[in-house]
Amino acid sequence: MKGFARSTLALSVSLAMAAGASASEFTDMDPVTLRLAHVVNEQDGFHIAAEKFETLVEQRTEGKVDIELYPNATLGDERTLLEGMQIGTVDMGVITNGPVANFVEEMAVFELPFLFPSREAAYEVLDGPIGQELLDKLSEVNLKGLAYAERGFRNLTNSERAVTSPEDIEGLRIRVMENPVYVDTFRELGANAIPMAWTEALTAMQQGTIDGQENPVNVIHSFKLYENQDHMTLSRHTYAPAIFVMGMPAWSQLPEAAQAVLVDAAQEASEHERRVNAEMESEQLAALREAGMEIVSEPDIAAFQEAVAPVYTQYGEQFGDYLPRIQEALK
């Protein structure tokens, strides 16, 4: 019993010391406010991730790091936000992978069409060595990648007709992100692919200057695209990550203990958003159907894959060894 008492006492002392060390890490830290921006609304997964991150960071730094959220593109579109992070006018954001790939082109490898067969396969690659390597490459352009949240599997909507095969896309004016892989993917499918910022796309759909767009179910639902998009195809043509990303000016001003908290909190917030997205998708699809959207659940995926094969030929070498490494990891 004496040995047990001694070991219990030792454990209590060591836990107390650990707690003291943890608490003291932030005692002398000057308070910092970080502005976290994104371009979607408060019902979107990005905001769910951002709110979770805010809670975790403020708790774990004992309030020394305060996170202020700026949704709805109030600080600019995604490219503007990334440029702001580089020069220090914006601190951080949750940013769709496509625009990030304009700064580090290898990031676009994740968005090759029909690369990932499932969410779980994507998470394994993103949270593993390949994903970390690419996050680290952001430092070359004065950005700091923290973790991969998600935009999710992207699906096609349009105002003209049901789409079950590539032939049905022929001639449709489809908004895509400002990213060459997306542009060329939809051109191979026969669409008139029109790259533009999301804020502009919403107006263009309302005015009928474009016929459709492609995005995950949660975006289609939260932005009420059923109001002007009658048709949806569960094409799941691309899995799009999103990135918790900071500007190096903001990252560099933080002590190491706070940096560690931000990395861990970003990963936890990302995993939280992924779970919420998966749980909400079936409810959102039911709501879209109820709102009058016609949904093609089983398009001819093999025909789509065949149509986009030239995209792999065109871009494969551009990503160095990342594409073969991802394909090997997915086997």
Can you tag this structure with a few keywords?
DctP_fam; single chain; 20% strand; alpha/beta; TRAP transporter substrate-binding protein; TRAP_DctP; globular; TRAP_DctP_sf; 331 residues; disordered N terminus; nine-stranded mixed sheet
Short characterization:
It comes from Halomonas aquatica. The chain has 331 residues and is of the alpha/beta class.
Structure overview:
The longest helix is centred in the last third of the chain and has 35 residues, at 256-290. The chain contains 14 helices and nine strands. Helix 2 runs antiparallel to helix 11. The chain has 331 residues and is of the alpha/beta class. The model is unreliable at 1-23 (pLDDT under 50). The relative contact order is 0.17.
Task: List the SSEs and their pairings.
Layout: H1 2-24, E1 32-37, H2 45-60, E2 65-70, H3 78-87, E3 92-96, H4 97-100, H5 119-126, H6 129-137, E4 143-158, E5 173-176, H7 180-188, E6 192-195, H8 198-207, E7 212-215, H9 217-222, E8 231-247, H10 248-252, H11 256-290, E9 294-296, H12 301-307, H13 309-315, H14 322-330
Parallel strand pairs: 1-2, 1-3, 5-6, 5-7, 8-9
Antiparallel strand pairs: 3-8, 4-7, 4-8
Organism: Halomonas aquatica
Keywords: Signal
InterPro entries: DctP_fam (IPR018389), TRAP_DctP (IPR004682), TRAP_DctP_sf (IPR038404)
